[in-house]
Amino acid sequence: MSSVYDSNLVLIQSALVAVLLALSIQVPLRLGVFSLAGVGSYGIGAYVSANLVLRYELGSIPTMALSALAAAAVSFLLGVVIYRLAGLYLAMATIAFDLTVAVVALNGGEWTGGPVGLFGVFTDLTMGLLFAVVALCLVAVHVTEIGRLARRVTTVREDPELAASVGINVRAYRLTAFVVSGLVGGLAGCLNTLTRSAVGLQDVSFHLVVLALTTVIVGGALSWRGAVIGSVLFTWLPTALAFVGDWQELVYGAIVVLAAIFLPTGLYGAWCSARRQFAVSFVGRRREAAVRARLHQGNVDKEVAAS
Amino acid sequence: MTNVLEASDVAVHYGGVRAVDGISFALEEGRISGIIGPNGSGKSTLVAALTRLTHLTRGELSFAGARYESVRPASIASMGVARTFQTVRLLPDLTVAANVQLGHDARARRDRPRGRGLPAPVSQALDRTGLAEMAHVLPSELSYGTQRRVEIARAIVMAPKLLLLDEPTAGMNQSERRDISALLRQLRDEGLTQLLIEHDVQMMLDTCDHLFAMAQGRLLTEGRPADVVADARVQEAYLGKGWKAHAGDQ
């Protein structure tokens, strides 16, 4: 068991970072905010953490906190400027933000290392701390998926006018989506730098946008469980597809296309639908029949009374 | 009688279109007021303006004596105004109970009582609207009329001081309309002020204490429901100019 863990250590680290990156896209999506700015925040978190460690020799915990806060602050300012945009226009604006971060990284001089990047970012980060931070984020997101907060989040996404009429400040929720996305994306970038001890242009490249989006689409966009499933899948997929050699990219693309066509709610959504179907078909059939009978009888009684 | 809501010279213009064009009126406390008018007369735009979902071109709004034409739409619920929409606006993935709970969320931070089950106001709202049996059913499994009752339950669970109902009985059969009319009158007897928009004139006559008639964004007349319905200007707005002569020819 231990040898399996050791031999997959890098993949496990990658999967944990990928979970947070996926959450930085998924949290805004759950609020109806089609923002891909989480990837830009990831880049900010990655470079800020490298500088904090290399220049100020901070430990892993303050580095994580400051990197996440820096990314969240930038994301908040971005949100203030573009929160009124929606749909594809919002996606375009946030991709422009991601590309801007990449340009700054390329031309940032000694702060970013330019095309070479920054190396030797060593801290006291342990696997236990890495697991704990990711678990903490998942618990925080889980809280937004249950009870009152879940209903309000769903309403902001599905019907902003209805949300306003039941007292929900839609603007505040949308701005919060930008802040949380920045916080989680920045944390993901920071953890990636601390686990790899280096940061470079690959940490702000466009392929991260594609990776994060496909992770969420294939895993499931409406729950953190979808982000976890997608992250694990896409972290191990290249290893699993090693046997197809040069055809790997094609198979990868085919999986994404097939998932988008046949699993529009992602793997987790499909699992939930199957479970609900099972409950309706077997467990709840008797109760459902009883309710239907009462509904029908009620309508009949009213029609008789009316006539 | 005191006025719960007062509107003064309210106008909503979209470019050259004057959807609402300088309307002034007041809603008396504890009364059911109604607005009738042909399609496109500006009734729903007026409700959107009253709930701040539509920006006012000009005019003043006051609720319980306090001006509110500058407040955010989300603050309307905390002022004590609840509404239903012209079309059904339920969340398809939430059960009937969860949809109604959304209204309860506006006034209560506690998610559920200490024991199990729904909060008492939610259960009461479901009972009053005849939805108790359907609490755990998805909206898509209900008839259109029943879905509208879920909207009413979601609004009354907010314990509002003023309830705005935009065509609440659209899609209902006659017996369902009578049930809703009885429910609204019962709520009125408990002190809830209401503003009702409907096309069903008989329903308005049976339900409302006071009626406003609108046409082309303006207020034509107001008064006792029977008088307003009998007003020649109102009949002309619905049936067109010269309708009497045309009817005589027939």
From TrEMBL, chain A:
Membrane topology according to the record: Multi-pass membrane protein
Record localization: Cell membrane
Keywords per UniProt: Cell membrane, Membrane, Transmembrane, Transmembrane helix
Record-linked CDD domains: TM_PBP1_LivM_like
Transmembrane spans: 34-54, 61-82, 88-106, 118-143, 172-194, 206-230, 250-271
Entries under Pfam families matching the protein: BPD_transp_2
Source organism, top-level taxon: Bacteria
PANTHER family tied to this protein: HIGH-AFFINITY BRANCHED-CHAIN AMINO ACID TRANSPORT PROTEIN BRAE, HIGH-AFFINITY BRANCHED-CHAIN AMINO ACID TRANSPORT SYSTEM PERMEASE
Protein name: Branched-chain amino acid ABC transporter permease
Organism: Nocardioides endophyticus
From TrEMBL, chain B:
InterPro entries: AAA+_ATPase, ABC_AA/LPS_Transport, ABC_transporter-like_ATP-bd, BCA_ABC_TP_C, P-loop_NTPase
Keywords tagged on the record: ATP-binding, Nucleotide-binding, Transport
Domain of life: Bacteria
GO MF term set: ATP binding
ABC transporter domain mapped to chain residues: 5-241
Pfam family, one: BCA_ABC_TP_C
PANTHER family xref list: CONSERVED COMPONENT OF ABC TRANSPORTER FOR NATURAL AMINO ACIDS, CONSERVED COMPONENT OF ABC TRANSPORTER FOR NATURAL AMINO ACIDS-RELATED
Protein's name according to its UniProt entry: ABC transporter ATP-binding protein
